[in-house]
Amino acid sequence: MSLVTFSGFPRIGLKRELKRALESHWRGAIGGETLLDTARLLRARHWRLAVDAGADVVPCNDFSLYDQVLDTAVLFDAIPARYRPVFSGSALDGYFAMARGHKRDGHDLHALEMTKWFDTNYHYLVPELEAGQRFALACDKPLAEFIEARELGHRARPVLLGPVSFLLLSKTVDGSDRLALLDALLPPYVELLGQLADAGADWVQLDEPCLVLDLDNDDRAAYRRAYAALAAARTPRLLLASYFGALGDNLALAVSLPVDGLHVDLVRASEQLDAVLDALPASFILSAGVVDGRNIWRSRPERVLPLLRKAQACLGDERLWLAPSCSLQHVPIDLEAETALDPRRRAPMAFARQKLEELRVYADALADLPEAHAALAAQQALLDTQAHAPGVVNAGVRNRLRTLSPQATLRRSAYPTRRATQSETLVLPPLPTTTIGSFPQTDALRRARADHRAGKLGDDAYDSLLKAEVERVVRFQEHVGLDVLVHGEPERNDMVEYFGEQLDGYLFTKLGWVQSYGSRCVKPPVIYGDIARPAPMTVRWSGYAQSLTDKPVKGMLTGPVTMLQWSFVRDDLPRETVCRQIALALRDEVHDLEAAGIGVIQIDEPALREGLPLRRADWLAYLAWAVECFRIAAGGVRDATQIHTHMCYSEFNDIIEAVAAMDADVISIETSRSRMELLDTFVRFRYPNGIGPGVYDIHSPRVPDAAEMLDLLHRALDVLQPEQLWINPDCGLKTRGWPEVELALGHMVASARQLRREL
Ligand code: GLN
Ligand code: ZN
Questions:
Q1: Would you state the pLDDT for residue 319?
Q2: What spacing in Å lies between the alpha carbon of 630 and ligand 2's midpoint?
Q3: 60-69, 569-578, 644-653: least confident range
Q4: CA nearest 166: which of 280, 73, 257, 56?
Q5: What confidence tens digit (pLDDT) does each residue in 510-557 have?
Q6: Among 269, 403, 487, 490, which residue's beta carbon has the most beta carbons within 10 A?
Q7: CA 487 to ligand 2 centroid distance, Å
Q8: How far, in Å, CA of 239 to CA of 211, rounded?
Q9: Beta bridge partners of 123
C-alpha cells in the first residue's frame, strides 16, 4: 500500500504555544529548559496528531525554535564571528542573537537579514558566509529529534535543507561565490547522514526547493557535484524534495541525481506528472504532493484521484508515496478548532490535520477500500454543492466583470494634463509634504478596539474615541505644517483585515495562525466567495477628517494585489479574476471618496512585488494583470483627483516598467535606508510622474534631524525634477510612538521649507 507522508508541520502550536514560550523566554520569564520542554511537548503532540490523522511516516527536524534555514546554518557551524562570544556563553542565546540581534552584556549585535521564503509569507534568516568559510557538524538537533520521534514509537524521516539550496539561499558578505563553498560544506552533511543511518533512519529528505527556480549552469553543476559526493558516502536513502512549482527545465537534472526518490509539487504543477513519470528512474520512489500545503481548501477528488491512479499504474503501490505539495507550515493546524465558523463555510476547508486525513483517504482509495471511495465521492459532492452555496457566486459581480470595458483601466487624460489640472485645484506648495497614512496606534487605541470587539465598549463610545483621535491627528498635521493630510487610520486593525471585514466574500478564522517569522504569526483572511462591496468602507472617516480642515485630506485604501497576496484565496477561480473583483470593489470606493470631496486618494500596493512568480518566464503575465487591477481601481476618477500609490520596498529593477504603467500621479517608496540609491532605477527609466522617496526610516526608533533629511533630499534633487519630488516618510507611522513622530515630522517639514528656499 502507498505510504502517507509529509515534510513538515506548523510548529507554532494551535494556540501559539511556541510563540508564548519564546516571548516569555526572551523577556527572561522562563529559562531555556522550560522553553525546550514546550518545544518537545509540541513536537510530540504534532507527531501524535499526524499519526492519528493517518500519516504512516512523520518528518523530524522540521521543527524549529525560529527558522529552519537558521537551524541549518547553526547545524553546520556557519556562525558569523560577531555572534561567537554569545554562543560560547549559551548556544540558545547565540541562536537567538542571530535571529533577533542581541543587546546585552556589552554586546550590540544586529540580527541576520530576513527575507521571504520563495513566494510564501514565511520569512527566513539569510546565512552570512564568506570566502574560505569552514563548516563542521556543530550540533545534534536532527539526530536528537529523530531519536525523540523513534522513542515515541513513530516511523520518522529526518528533513534537512539540501546543500545546494542552502548555499543558494545564503549570501556571502564579501561578494565571493557562494557555490565555491560547496566542497567545504559536503563533509559535515556526509557525517550527519552517516550518523542518521547509524541511528536507524532508513530515509532522509533533502529539501531542494531551488530546483523549481531558473538555474544556470553553475547551479546545475553544483547539484551534480553535491549529490555525487553524498551518493559516494554511506547514507540513508535520500528523498530529493522539490516544491512550490514545476521542475520544468530542471527535471532532467533532478532525475539524473543519484538519489532514491523525488518529491514533486502536483498542486501548483499537476501538468508535470506525465513528464516526471516518463523521466523517473526505475530505482526512484515518487512522493506525489497532491494536497495543497499552501492553501486551506479541501482537495478535489476529481482532480487528485486521476493523478494518483496514473502514478499508481506506472509505479505500483510501493514506489508511490502520498504527501502534501510542500511543508504544512504554511497552513493553520486544525479546522476543528474553528467552532464559530458557519458550518457551510467550514465544509470546503482543510487545515494541516484535515489535509493528512485526506491523504489517508486517497491512500485507502488507491488500495480500493470501499469506504474510501464513498468518502471521496461525498467530498466531491460537497465541493460541487459548495460551489453554488449562497455568497460564493455573485451574479452581479460576475456580470460586471464580464462586461467591463477596456476603457475602465484608463484615466481621462494623460499624466501631463492631469498634472496641470491638479496643480490648479489642489494648490500645493512646491515639494509638497505628506505621510503614508497611519499615525501611532497607541495602547489606548488598541485597548479600545479590543474592548469594542469584546462588547465591553459600546459603538458610540468607540466611535467618539476614534473621532477624537482623527481630530488629534488632523490638528497635529496642521500644526506641524504638512501639506496633504491623512486621517491617521486609527480605526484599522490591519490594512487587509479592515477592508476584508467590510467586503462580501471574505471570512475570518479564530485560530488560523500561520508563522510569518520567529514568534510572529499572521491570521490571513480567507476569500471564499465573489468579492463585492455592500457599502462604502472609508468614506466616513476620510470625510470626517476633511470636514475638520481646509487642507486636502488623502483617502487611504489597500490595493487589490495586496488584498489578494495577504489572504488565503479561493482555488476555484484564477487569482487574477479574484483580484479583478477586488479591484472593482475598490473602484467603487474610490468613486465614492471622490464624490465626498476627497481630492487625493492613495491606493497602497506594498505586496505587488512579492507576488512575482518564481520563474521569470511568468513575470510579464503576472505584472500585466496586477497593473490592470490597480488601474481598474484607480481608473474611474476625474483628472483633478490625484491618485497616489505606496510601495515600501527597495527593489524596483525588475518591476519599474509595470510601476510606470500603473500611472499613479504620485508614488511613495522606501529609500531612506538605501540613502536614495534605489531612485536610480526610476531615474534610468526616466519615470515621469510624482515620486516621494522616503526620508525617514520608520522601522527604527532613531529620529533623523532636518540636516540628514535635507541631505537625502539633495540627493533626490540631483536626479529628479523639482516638480516631481514629494517629501514623506518611508511608510506608515503606526508602529512608532507620538514623541518620535512629532519630532521626525517636524524635522521633515523644516527640511522641506529649507529646500524650497533653495529652489
Ligand atoms: N497606509 C498604510 C499605513 O500607513 C500603508 C502600510 C504599508 O505600506 N505596509 O500604515
Ligand atoms: Zn509601506
A1: 98
A2: 17
A3: 644-653
A4: 73
A5: 999 999 999 999 999 999 999 999 999 999 999 999 999 999 999 999
A6: 487
A7: 16
A8: 14
A9: 116
How many angstroms separate the alpha carbon of residue 689 from the centre of ligand 1?
21
507 belongs to an annotated ligand binding site: no
Residue in the structure block whose three cell numbers are 531519536:
147
Q: Whose CA is nearest to atom 4 of ligand 1?
A: 732
- What was the pLDDT predicted at 650? 67
Q: Please tell me the residue having the least CA distance from ligand 1 atom 8.
A: 606
pLDDT of residue 702: 87
User: Which residues contact ligand 1 via a Cβ below 6 A?
Assistant: 436-438, 495, 556, 604, 606, 646, 648, 731-732, 734
Would you place residue 105 in the very low, low, confident or very high pLDDT band (cuts 50, 70, 90)? confident
Pairing of strands 261-265, 237-241: parallel
pTM over 0.80? The answer is: yes
Q: Which residues contact 404 (CB under 8 A, 6 or more apart)?
A: 580, 584, 632
What ligand has the least distance to the C-alpha of 495?
1
Residue 461 has pLDDT above 90, yes or no: yes
Is 576 annotated to bind a ligand? Reply is no
Q: Is 699 a catalytic residue?
A: yes
DSSP per residue over 432-452, as a string?
-BB--SB----HHHHHHHHHH
Counting Cα atoms < 13 Å in the Cβ hemisphere of 39 gives 20
With beta carbons less than 8 A apart as the criterion, state whether 681 and 709 touch.
no
Q: What SS3 state is found at 187? A: helix
ipTM summary value: 0.99
pLDDT > 70 in the chain, percent: 100
Q: Which of 486, 604, 608 to mutate to test the pocket of ligand 1 (most atoms within 8 A of CB)?
A: 604
The CA-atom distances, in angstroms, between 43 and each of 11, 108, 648 are 8, 33, 37
Catalytic entry in 110, 479, 699, 714: 699
Average pLDDT over residues 611-618: 96
d(CA 537, CA 585): 10
Q: Which residue has the cell 479564530?
A: 510
Contact 418, 665 (CB under 8 A): yes
Ligand 1 atom closest to residue 606's alpha carbon, by position in its atom list:
8
Q: How far apart are CA 489 and CA 185, in angstroms?
A: 49
19 annotated as a binding-site residue: yes
Task: Give the pLDDT score at 362.
Answer: 98
In angstroms, what is the span from residue 740 Cα to ligand 1's centroid? 18
